[in-house]
């Protein structure tokens, strides 16, 4: 407490003079100093409580065998240490007056089992709250809602099994939340999903709890600077490949939550008697997990995509992108198809095939630098729009299939060329040809006409086979072979497959 001025002690300002009766003059200034020293310390803001040590605005009541918060508390208190006592309940009236200067409250190792939802109404400027190593079993609704300026909250080594999703409402400045060594089976990770509930949170300790499964997709979508301080080791997690890929990516990115506790990141397999290391699942039966590629983005021609610079550094001083062609994108807004956004992401508009490749994000932090790589795959066809073009390979395949179908229709669905399908003045086809007949014959067909027969199906049985393996309705004996070069020429069969293009003999 600041030293008191004589004006404060006597209510008036006296520099010189004397007090007392006539003939008994006494020096006034030494008397006022004696009265000031004998006055209770901190009369304006409260004296130091018994069994506590006070130093300026710090009150240390640790290991004082206290069962309740001592009273009265000086109003100028900024740091209050009540650790290692027996304060089992923190009611709403533990601070009878408003402690506007209090910014750190330490209540660890007290056997604390109850905290009122109005317990922090008198300390609105609290920034550091330590409730670790107690017997808290649940975080009730809106428990910390009055602490709008809270930055660090320690709740580790308790018996917490239930966490209400509204318990951390209005904690817009919270940076570190320690919940390790509890009995939490499910933590509302949706508080981190969009970043609006706890926008400043940079560390979340959920180690040594009872978590059996994790929403890996939601965790992977978190920014890298938060995943760098998301501690999940010491939980009885069930092994699966998405969990392995999440941890493997953290190791590849050198995230502290994975690198520092790599041996304690374990999971349970149904076939294993003891937990196994999550990183040991690579190629191990029965899961046989493999690492996923890091930062691979697929797009189509004409699309607009945004490449995120997922850095684990906070307080970035500067950053820029380098395209696959070696071009540096430095300025926000940019020109052409590449533009640097305000959050550090790179936006590519109207994608072209030459935009595919590996992009590098160079980040300069206050202590170290980091380089991130994003691979962009551009498919050579568009995906949206009424006039989209088709993939060339797909078009070729469809064309081949249609060609085969047309050929089959042409071969097997050609109209029947039997006698009933021709005109009345056309003579029937001769039936004395054999399979050895020539496709092109120089001799016209002069066989005698035979009586017409009704049209029969091609599948009907026949005694002789026609040209190209077709059956003929009535085979006739072959004429005796003749000698000479012209004896081998046969009369063409207009009803055969070889003459399907014309019914008139072709003379060579």
Automatic annotation (TrEMBL):
Compartments reported by the entry: Membrane
Q: Which residues form the signal peptide?
A: 1-44
Q: Name one Pfam family in it.
A: ig
Top-level taxon of the source organism: Eukaryota
Q: Region entry Disordered: which residue ranges?
A: 431-508
Record bears the keyword Transmembrane: yes
Provide the protein name: Amphoterin-induced protein 1
Task: List the source organism.
Answer: Eudyptes chrysocome (Western rockhopper penguin)
């Amino acid at each position: 407490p600041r030293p008191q001025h004589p004006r404060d002690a006597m209510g008036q300002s006296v520099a010189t003079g004397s007090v007392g009766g006539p003939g008994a003059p006494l020096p006034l200034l030494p008397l006022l100093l004696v009265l000031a020293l004998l006055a209770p310390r901190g009369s304006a803001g409260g004296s130091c409580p018994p069994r506590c040590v006070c130093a300026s605005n710090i009150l240390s009541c640790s290991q004082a065998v206290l069962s309740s918060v001592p009273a009265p508390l000086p109003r100028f208190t900024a740091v209050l240490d009540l650790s290692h006592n027996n304060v089992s309940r923190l009611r709403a009236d533990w601070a009878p007056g408003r402690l506007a200067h209090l910014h750190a409250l330490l209540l660890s190792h007290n056997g604390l089992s109850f905290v009122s939802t109005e317990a922090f109404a008198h300390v609105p400027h609290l920034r550091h709250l330590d409730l670790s190593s107690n017997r808290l079993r649940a975080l009730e609704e809106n428990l910390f809602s009055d602490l709008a300026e809270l930055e660090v909250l320690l709740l580790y080594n308790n018996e917490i099994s239930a966490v209400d999703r509204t318990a951390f409402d209005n904690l817009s400045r919270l940076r570190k939340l320690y919940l390790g060594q509890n009995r939490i089976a499910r933590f509302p990770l949706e508080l981190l999903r969009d970043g609006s509930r706890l926008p400043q949170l940079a560390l979340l300790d959920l180690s040594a709890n009872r978590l059996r499964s994790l929403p890996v997709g939601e965790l992977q979508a978190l920014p890298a600077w938060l995943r760098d301080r998301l501690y999940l080791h010491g939980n009885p997690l069930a092994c699966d490949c998405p969990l392995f890929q999440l941890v493997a990516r953290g190791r590849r990115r050198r995230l502290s939550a994975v690198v520092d506790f790599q041996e304690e990141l374990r999971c349970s397999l149904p076939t294993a008697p003891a937990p196994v290391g999550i990183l040991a699942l690579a190629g191990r039966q029965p899961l046989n997990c493999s690492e996923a590629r890091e930062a691979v983005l697929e797009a189509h021609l004409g699309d607009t995509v945004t490449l995120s610079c997922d850095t684990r550094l906070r307080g970035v001083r500067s950053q820029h992108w380098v395209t696959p062609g070696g071009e540096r994108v430095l300025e926000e807004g940019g020109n052409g198809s590449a533009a640097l956004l305000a959050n550090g992401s790179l936006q590519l508009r109207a994608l072209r095939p030459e935009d595919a490749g590996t992009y590098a994000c160079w980040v300069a932090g206050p202590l170290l630098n980091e380089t991130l790589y994003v691979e962009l795959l551009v498919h050579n066809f568009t995906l949206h729009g009424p006039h989209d073009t088709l993939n060339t390979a797909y078009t070729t395949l469809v064309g081949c299939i249609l060609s085969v179908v047309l050929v089959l229709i042409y071969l097997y669905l050609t109209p029947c060329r039997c006698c009933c399908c021709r005109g009345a003045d056309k003579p029937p086809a001769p039936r004395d040809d054999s399979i050895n007949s020539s496709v092109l014959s120089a001799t016209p067909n002069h066989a005698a006409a035979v009586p017409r027969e009704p049209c029969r199906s091609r599948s009907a049985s026949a005694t002789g086979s026609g040209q190209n393996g077709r059956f003929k309705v009535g085979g006739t004996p072959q004429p005796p072979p003749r000698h000479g070069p012209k004896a081998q020429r046969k009369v063409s069969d207009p009803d055969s497959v070889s003459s399907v293009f014309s019914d008139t003999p072709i003379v060579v």
